[in-house]
């Protein structure tokens, strides 16, 4: 078995493979984000941070918004420009970004991208960057794993989950194991890839910050955001998933956390 020690990632380095592994043919994530933006009256200019392959940014563009997609992966951005045109795409690290004089009516951050802010300083960097990028009254819309779910809950931990799919005629098998690093407050993920083309197995490791809802509220307040909604679903990655017309539940203890916050005027 080989271990990726170069900082590369099989999925983010191969965006078409990413979309094959995580298909979203109904564009649920983009539709959910657009529903939040409309529900809370966001203006047309949107920044999609951690935009990945550009699927969600392109959906928001088709919904009539002026969209900028930002990501750290050049491979993802190259794919987005070709396969999901419409938005402008820029290279930026969501943990600390500066897009110059551009200002936005909303920042969108989906699929746990916010949780790549592993430390308090990185989370401060993200929220401070959002504050500078947003117009007064602008929205932050985010969707992520919920740290509260893992307090005493172990059904998603330690037991490997296996997913098989075919891409370009090659069969792939991903075996993913999650574990909690309580000292670092991280949800660590080990994923082993095998393929039926004879290539050796590859092991890759990553992690998400385990944020608790009240902890997130505190960080948002410090940076001048008022929480308008913070709930566990329904959303694009809940079971069952969000559908048009669904209203959010009032609880925040399931696996996913959904956030809408407004930057207060005068801050």
Polypeptide structure, described:
This protein is α/β, with parallel strands linked by helices and 267 residues long. The protein has two domains: 15-147 and 211-263, Vaccinia Virus protein VP39 (Rossmann fold, 3-Layer(aba) Sandwich); 151-208, N-terminal domain of TfIIb (Single Sheet). It contains six helices and twelve strands. The strands form two sheets. A seven-stranded mixed beta sheet has the order 4-3-2-5-6-12-11, sandwiched between helices. Strands 1-10-9-8-7 form a five-stranded mixed beta sheet. Strand 8 and strand 9 (186-195) form a beta hairpin. The longest helix has 14 residues, at 120-133. This is Class I SAM-dependent methyltransferase. One of its GO terms (molecular function) is methyltransferase activity. One of its GO terms (biological process) is methylation. Pfam families: Methyltransf_25 (PF13649). Keywords: Methyltransferase, S-adenosyl-L-methionine, Transferase.
């Amino acid at each position: 078995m080989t271990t990726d020690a170069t900082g590369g990632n099989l999925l983010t380095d191969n965006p078409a493979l990413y979309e094959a592994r995580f298909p979203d043919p109904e564009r649920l994530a983009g539709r959910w984000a657009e529903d939040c933006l409309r529900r809370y009256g966001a203006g047309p200019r949107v920044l999609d941070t951690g935009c990945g392959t550009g699927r969600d940014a392109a959906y928001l563009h088709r919904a009539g918004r002026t969209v900028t997609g930002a990501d750290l992966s050049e491979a993802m951005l190259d794919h987005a420009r070709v396969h999901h045109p419409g938005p402008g795409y820029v290279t930026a690290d969501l943990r600390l970004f500066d897009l110059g004089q551009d200002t936005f009516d909303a920042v969108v951050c989906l699929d746990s991208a916010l949780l790549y802010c592993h430390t308090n300083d990185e989370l401060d960097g993200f929220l401070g960057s959002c504050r500078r990028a947003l117009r007064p009254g602008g929205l932050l819309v985010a969707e992520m794993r919920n740290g509260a779910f893992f307090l005493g809950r172990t059904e998603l931990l330690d037991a490997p989950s296996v997913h098989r799919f075919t891409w370009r005629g090659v069969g792939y098998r991903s075996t993913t194991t999650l574990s909690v690093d309580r000292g670092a407050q991280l949800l660590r993920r080990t994923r082993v890839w095998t393929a039926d083309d004879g290539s050796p197995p590859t092991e890759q490791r990553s992690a998400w910050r385990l944020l608790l809802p009240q902890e997130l509220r505190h960080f948002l307040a410090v940076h001048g955001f008022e929480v308008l909604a913070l709930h566990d679903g329904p959303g694009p990655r809940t079971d069952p998933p969000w559908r048009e017309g669904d209203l959010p539940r009032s609880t925040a203890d399931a696996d996913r956390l959904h956030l809408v916050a407004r930057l207060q005027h005068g801050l």
